[in-house]
User: Fold this.
Amino acid sequence: MTELLLIVIVVVGILILRSYNQRLQRLESRVSELQNALAGHVLSVGAGESAAAAESIEEVIEASETAAQPLTEAAAETTSDMEEAAFSDGGTPEQQEDMVAAALQQKDESLESTIGARWAVWVGGIALAFGGIFLVKYSIESGLLSPAVRLVLAAIFGLVLIAAGEVIRRRSEPMLANTFQNAMIPGVLTAAGVVALFGSTYAAHGIYGFIGPAAAFVLLGLISLATLGLSLLHGQALAGLGLLASMITPVLIASTAPRPWTLFGYLVFTWLATIAASRLRRWHTVPSFANALLSIWPLLYIFNSDVVDLTPVTLAMLAMIAGTIFIWPGRYGAAATIEEDIDSAETEGLSVAPPASHWAAFLARAPLGMTLTASIGSAAVALAFLVYSLLYGYPLPDASLLFAVIVATLAALGASRVYAAWAAILSAIAAGFGMFIALMQPEIGAELNIAQIVPALSHLVVYDGLGLGAIFVIAGFFFLKRFGESEKPFAALWSAIMVATPLTIAVISYVTFGNWMRDWLHGLYGIVLAAVLMALAELQHRRSPEANGALPTNILAAGSFAALVFALHTLTHDATPTILLPVLGMAFLLAGRARSWPALPWTMVAALLITLGRIAWQPTIVDPDELGTTPIFNMLLAGYGIPAALAVWAAFELRHSQDLRLRNTLQALASFLVLLTIAILVRHAMNGGVLNANIPTLSEQSIYTLLAIGASATLMALDLSASSPVFRYGGMALGVLSVILILSLHLLGLNPFMTGESTGGIPFFNLLLLGYLLPAIAYGGLALYARGRRPRPYVTMLAVAGAVMAFAWATLSVRRFWQGEYIPFWNDFIQGEVYSYSVVWLLIGIALLWLGARFDARSLRIASAALVFVAVVKVFLIDMANLEGFLRALSFIGLGVVLIGIGLFYQKVLTGRKTTE
Assistant:
């Protein structure tokens, strides 16, 4: 059955070759016509295929004369010759032939062409390879030939296929190669021959042992490299086959004494050969494949070898990155990059003005596959160094140094080539994550119970990390110098990398190995970094002074502030950073007078937010034992008061700023810090110089409530003088907050009637005055001030709150008059006390009615009616049951007189209104 199948395959192959000979003759005739047309000799258009060819010629010639623009990347990857035309300025006749062939291919491609011209070739090549395998298998089973003879015949078979491919290639015309370049018969025959040669050589070593490891390695390497050389003639697919064969050769040859220098030298040589061939043919897929394979080998070597030498691995990665920079893609055509950006922008419906202005365009620039594989591969290998050191005890200083070298070289790729945005991004990510692994190794090692760094060598790792961060700044400087004007989005990206990478590494280093009292190394590093970043921002500004809002300039300025914040924390501690942070922010804000960069005033916002974070972390500013008990004049006044004063200054300085968000944010922070300062000083004074989390007393809470009411009035006044949504809604929010406080704390949680707290020994000037009467007066004044200036429901809420607080003060004062200093609810009520409540409530109701009529406040009149109703209910239900004798009669008489008087008052008011109408 096998023999019959082999015969059928051979017959089919012969028939296919015969059909191609006929098709080749037709194509040669068409090529002649096209060449004459391109030379200016227009042939007469006949019938049949010539007419269609002439029509295609006219279209292609017109396109080639009017469009000198490069082809898109998608078309460039379809054929290597068309890619060369894409990078040229004009076009040679040979390149125009390629364009014509591509047009004919797109125009005449059909199902018949796909099956007959492409699939048949692919299947035929596979069939030839299987034919050779079956032939060897048959000879083995039949015992016809010895192993040596079989191997020789297999090698001869491979050479014959390669020779046949070369013969057919030389007989074919360029038009045929361009039209069916991914299904060329010479390439398929050559690939089948390479497989036969590779298989016979490996069998001679691995199966029969006819040759030793060294000879087998050399032969397999030569076959692979020869395949790469032949790929220049037969296309990218054969190059991929040769590359794969080269990369798996070391796996096929077993060695009892692995030599990493020999291994990676061979791999790099193979990679260089592939890259050189790719540069000649402008291939994209094969070099990407080569980058991936070269990156996989170090990972396999590191984690599968008993003894590891990282130096040759490092050199291999450096060679890959350097080859990417200088060989291929190297100086990838700037014109091609611009055209690709324009094409991408047009596809997305964007403006094509400056092509580099679109983030999506510059991140997806060709050759994306090559830059991604080189960047991901080298970053993964560099991180593998540190992981291996952590897991297996490899000297961490050596591993961190080699890691830094690879990552720095990858950053150089991102800084030297405008198409290598992902190299810059991935190098920065690898730097941050890798130095985290290296610098946090003591903690990680303790958790995993594995090898740790020797403490005496820790400073070497710190120097590696800080040096790596400095290299990123240098790389970014060179990028901004070369491409800062033409590549705005990429320049902004590099500015962010220059800020984030060194700061991230420095923070990790300081947290792990720094001196938390005062660290001069990290402090000076932050100061120098801040100076360099600010100098670069100034340089960017001077190069384009009209672009004050340029993103790179503002990122660098903000990064300079961040570096100084870091330096401040490394050189000072306790209260000093909390106090100096707003000073630093104010300095940057005032620098905005000389340079109108939007980032400068926002640094003040950042400084205030960091200050609030520090206050939340340590509310006492200094150690609690050092705070002292002196009211007001202590470290709290400096730690809270200085930031609050500077926040007020900043808000005043930017009161006319065009940036509404900035202005509102500073006003809100200033208001909050002022209130916080007053509240914390009150808390300290009311608790004997101790700040704790205990529930405040009524006296302390009363001060907070009065502060909230006063702040609400202050913000309202500020809003009326300089309209601001922060002042407007902030003041109303404080008013609502104070009402919530009185409902939850003054009337319930901290009420002396509920808690039994002492109200004081003085009859009027006591706790009830502070806790109830003063807030009532404050609410009344605030409601009067807000009348006509704030929404009616808000004003009504304030007025009702004031009435409720006045009612509570009067009621509790009556109880204090009869009960004394302590007025808890568990003390029994006295008859005179019960009667006094009715009298006081009615008097308050009358007073509210008079105030409501005086100021035409309907809310006060409603409150009066409600209070009188409560008094009526009390008299009929409580006084009738609990009072006796003269007091009961007097209670009802007084109630009747008051109600009649109220009725008479309303009759006069209504009569007066009707007369007026």
Notes: The chain has a mean pLDDT of 79. The longest helix spans residues 2-38.
